[in-house]
Design brief:
The complex is a heterodimer of chains A (115) and B (114). Chain A is globular and about 40 Å long. Chain A contains no helices and 11 strands. Chain A is mainly beta. Chain B is built from no helices and 9 strands. A 5-stranded mixed beta sheet of chain B has the order 1-9-8-3-4, with no helix packed on it. A 4-stranded antiparallel beta sheet of chain B has the order 2-7-6-5, with no helix packed on it. The interface between A and B is medium-sized, with 30 and 27 residues.
């Protein structure tokens, strides 16, 4: 089975712009979780989607949003980019059939640099 | 906050067993212990998980103490490619307010040396 894929792998934006990142889960997985990793804060949970519905949300401002499509692919969007949004953005997929407590498998991440 | 405590760093000689400890003294009865590792700038890789029995797979072994307050991840024959940050995570076994969410601590940086 193919693993979790994320596109693009690298991205450079300027402050004030917006960005959309994409995640394709493992075939058959219906849950997608997003994480942000920075040197200062480590790995932090953004949100989780299951069957096109946001099921859980972390403590991030409303500039961070996401959605999930009927084929379980997910996108996350960051509007009005700030320098502090520079990070590695990771998505993870799981079957989603045990209330969100299943093993998550991570993609390679998208590295975003905001100038 | 993470519910686990790990040493910030450890060294291991290549070919020897690497034993990575984790304390989770507040673990609940329905919470699993998960281990992931992250090689520099890559996505975290799932290693193994367990509830109360010891577990083994092709990558590692997980030893959980009888009172479940601590565990040890064992890499039986460490190689240079095992150099990574290892995360021990405690999470509920079924739906809760933490659904879909892993809480990562700072992990242990394992350096395997030739």
């Amino acid at each position: 089975k193919a693993g979790v894929t994320q596109t693009p792998r690298y991205l450079i934006k300027t402050r004030g712009q917006q960005v959309t990142l994409s995640c394709s889960p493992i075939s058959g997985h219906r849950s997608v979780s997003w994480y942000q990793q920075t040197p200062g804060q480590g790995l932090q949970f953004l949100f989780e989607y299951f069957s096109e519905t946001q099921r859980n949300k972390g403590n991030f401002p409303g500039r961070f949003s996401g959605r999930q499509f009927s084929n379980s692919r997910s996108e996350m969007n960051v509007s009005t980019l700030e320098l502090g949004d520079s990070a590695l953005y990771l998505c993870a997929s799981s079957t989603g059939t045990s209330g969100g407590a299943e093993t998550q498998y991570f993609g390679p991440g998208t590295r975003l640099l905001v100038l | 906050d993470a519910k686990t405590t790990q040493p910030p760093s450890m060294d291991c000689a290549e070919g020897r067993a690497a034993n990575l400890p984790c304390n989770h003294s507040t673990i609940s009865g329905n919470e699993y212990v998960y281990w992931y590792r992250q090689i520099h700038s890559q996505g975290p890789q799932y290693i193994i998980h367990g509830l109360k029995n010891n577990e083994t797979n092709e990558m590692a072994s997980l030893i959980i103490t009888e009172d479940r307050k601590s565990s040890t991840l064992i890499l039986p024959h460490a190689t240079l490619r095992d150099t990574a940050v290892y995360y021990c995570i405690v999470r509920a076994s079924h739906g809760s307010s933490n659904t879909g969410k892993l809480i990562f601590g700072q992990g242990t940086t394992l350096q395997v040396k030739p």
